[in-house]
Amino acid sequence: MDSSAKHYTTTTGLLDLVDKRIHVTLRDGKKIVGILRSFDQYGSLVVQDAVERIYVSGAYGNIDRGIFIIRGENIVLLGELDEDEEEKLESLDLIQLPIEEVLEIQRIETEGKMKKEKVQIQKLASLGFVFDSGSGQDAF
């Protein structure tokens, strides 16, 4: 094995990503794209020119966030973005829409999911299953 190819399992592994374009998926489902400028020993990140990208059926929209500070415990996925690959979004039949349209589509999709979930819960309740009234979100 080549000794120059070290694989770090700590935040030191982020050194190669500094000043590069990254994609971060957060615990609450948000997806952030931007340039990694700094990090600390806890895995917290400072992302410059950050954009929150929202995906909906066949489309996506961007919300400019500027400088974004992300606490390390909220990161689910982190990776470098290849500029050439990002340009291939159009080949995936994803079109960029104005954020207002994306948010409206997202609202409609969320309402539909909630109605479907309510019907499922009612059906399971009729079979004797009990559900708590919690939102299902993390309590943190």
From TrEMBL:
One of its GO terms (molecular function) is mRNA binding. Its main location: cytoplasm. One of its GO terms (biological process) is deadenylation-dependent decapping of nuclear-transcribed mRNA. Keywords: Cytoplasm, mRNA processing, Ribonucleoprotein, RNA-binding. One of its GO terms (cellular component) is Lsm1-7-Pat1 complex. PROSITE patterns: SM. Belongs to the snRNP Sm proteins family. Component of the heptameric LSM1-LSM7 complex that forms a seven-membered ring structure with a donut shape. PANTHER family: LSM1 (PTHR15588), U6 SNRNA-ASSOCIATED SM-LIKE PROTEIN LSM1 (PTHR15588:SF8). This is U6 snRNA-associated Sm-like protein LSm1. The gene is LSM1.
